[in-house]
Write a structure and sequence with these properties.
This protein is α/β, with parallel strands linked by helices. 41% of the residues lie in helices and 13% in strands. It has two domains: 217 residues, 3-Layer(aba) Sandwich (Rossmann fold), CATH 3.40.50.720; 35 residues, no CATH class. It has eight helices and seven strands. The longest helix is centred in the middle third of the chain and has 25 residues. InterPro entries: NAD(P)-bd_dom_sf (IPR036291), SDR_fam (IPR002347), SDR_subfam_1 (IPR023985).
Length: 281
């Protein structure tokens, strides 16, 4: 099946690499023009490197290679004015905005950082999503679709815990569940749908870094990727699945963005190999 979002325009935060780039390419392959928005510099609380300007340019180039138009914009989702300006550039360039992926997110397990870690993670993963929707929804019309990236961490009792950055990650993702329902109820009156996706571990840099490895294998001084794979797999109910791929989430994004999901709103889809089923009571 092709052309499911033909002629539409999608704005994707965190579009420089990882899940965001995957969403951009999948939507472009289905006919959408793309605006990729990304911070493109590192943050103190994040122990792994974030996307760079070159990464963002690569996303644009790969979209254009699919014969779709693309625009790369550097900016911070914590800054509402930056997102408002991005929406203005989107309308000026493409004349419309139909799909929004509020995807930008970070994880911080940096010990000793204190509340700075909380502020950067909650500011990006919760306030950043709210800013994205608050900037984009007024520019969308009936038939539009907004998709929020949640996390399986939202369902874990007590969250991923630990230092303030880890607590902020779970807090932000959990708050998004309620937020999506309420903003979906408001947007439905305009014919706009708002949904979310809860991924489990995903094969991106957010997962593959020393901070996450140490959290999954605290018994080892310097755990490697091979060391953590068995521990990663314990989260999922389906056997031998340490993580899912960005494309697995992108498939759900395209579904929610398309007319196939025209009557689905206020919902979260779990793309997690059954991880949430392990929490049944």
């Amino acid at each position: 099946m092709t052309g499911r979002v033909q002629g539409k325009v999608a704005l994707i935060t965190g579009g420089g690499r990882g899940q965001g780039r995957s969403h951009a390419l999948k939507l472009a392959a289905e006919g959408a023009d793309i605006v990729a928005f990304d911070l493109c510099h590192d943050l103190k609380s994040v122990a792994y490197e974030l996307a760079t300007p070159d990464d963002l340019n690569q996303t644009v180039a790969e979209v254009e290679a699919l014969d779709r138009r693309a625009l790369g914009i550097q900016g911070d989702v914590r800054d509402l004015s930056a997102l408002t300006e991005a929406v203005s550039r989107t309308i000026d360039t493409f004349g419309r905005l139909d799909i929004v992926c509020a995807n930008a997110g970070i994880a911080s397990f940096t010990p000793g950082l204190g509340m700075e870690g909380w502020a950067e993670v909650a500011g990006t993963n919760l306030v950043g999503v709210m800013n994205t929707l608050h900037a984009t929804l007024p520019a969308m019309s009936a038939g539009g679709s907004a998709i929020v990236t949640g996390s399986f961490a939202a369902m874990i009792k007590g969250g991923v815990g630990g230092e303030p950055g880890g607590l902020a990650y779970s807090y932000a993702k959990r708050q998004l569940v309620d937020y999506v329902k309420w903003v979906a109820a408001a947007a439905a009156l305009q014919g706009i749908r708002v949904n979310g996706i809860h991924p489990t571990n995903c094969n991106t840099r957010l997962l593959h870094n020393d901070g996450v490895y140490a959290r999954f294998r605290p018994d080892l001084e310097n755990p490697t990727r091979d060391d953590v794979l068995p521990a990663f797999a314990t989260l999922q109910l389906m056997p031998n699945v340490p993580y899912i791929e960005p494309e697995d989430i992108s498939n759900a994004v395209v579904f929610l963005a398309s007319d196939e999901a025209r009557y689905i709103t206020g919902e979260f889809i779990s793309v997690d190999a059954g991880a949430h089923l392990k929490l049944l009571e």
